[in-house]
Write a structure and sequence with these properties.
- By secondary structure, this protein is α+β, with helices and mostly antiparallel strands.
- It has a single domain, classed as Cathepsin B, Chain A (Alpha-Beta Complex).
- Helices cover 30% and strands 23% of the residues.
- It has helices at 3-19, 42-47, 56-67, 77-82, 117-129, 180-187; strands spanning 23-24, 35-37, 97-98, 101-106, 134-141, 144-153, 159-164, 174-177, 192-197.
- Strands 1, 2, 3, 4, 5, 6, 7, 8 and 9 form a 9-stranded antiparallel sheet that branches.
Length: 205
């Protein structure tokens, strides 16, 4: 007579574990994130750097490749090819496969009151729950943008991102950005880069 209740409990627990499968607990030096993508390693972030004043797009992609074990910590091939290119965007990497990850640019909607913020937050949540980082463009000043990697969430469910300081002179500095949802709301949205995994990593960083 009690089997249905037991079965229902098991189903609920299964959904719960699936929902958190992509997350680890609070990692060491997590920057205030209480849930982080499994495998996140602050040491890898700290060793990474931005090589050129305008290379933040390939810099964040390199960081994701390193955090997912696709490239070693000494890899800077994308930035070396990009250099100080100033007319680039996420579109340069849309549909490209790099070291087993295929990247996709999403949410190119105009940044205004009609931007689908709720859908954007839902996609970011889905990617994090699946154990994947999200590259996001955040406003860093008047008509200036800097790229970040969303790697976890805080106790209130808001996103936490990390990046390297956006200039050649200070590019070794690690910067953690909290309250990303609030920032995106004030920005009226932004575009992001997500990715698919096509093979396991060849090497560990």
């Amino acid at each position: 007579m009690r089997r249905p209740a037991v079965h229902a409990t098991l189903v609920i627990l299964s959904f719960f574990f699936l929902a958190v499968a992509g997350f680890a607990g609070q990692a060491q030096d997590s920057g205030g994130a209480t849930l982080v993508v499994a495998g996140f390693d602050r040491k890898i972030v700290n060793e990474h750097r931005q090589l050129f004043d305008s290379s933040c797009i390939p810099m964040t992609i390199e960081l994701v490749l390193k955090l997912t074990g696709r490239e070693p910590v000494g890899y800077f091939g994308l930035q070396q090819a990009w250099q100080d290119k100033t007319n680039g965007s996420f579109a340069d990497f849309d549909g490209k496969t790099l070291s087993g990850l295929t990247f996709h640019r999403r949410f190119t909607d105009p940044r205004n009151k009609d931007f689908p913020l709720k859908r954007l937050f839902g996609v970011i949540d889905k990617e994090l729950n699946a154990g994947r980082y999200v590259i996001v463009s955040l406003q860093s000043g008047a008509n200036q943008w800097h790229m970040h990697v969303i790697y976890g969430k805080d106790a209130n469910g808001d996103f936490v991102a990390i990046t390297k300081s956006g200039s050649k002179a200070t590019g070794a500095q690690t910067v953690v950005v909290k309250h990303v949802k609030d920032i995106l709301t004030k920005m009226n949205g932004t575009d992001i880069l997500t990715y698919e995994l096509h093979r396991p990593p060849k090497r560990k960083p």
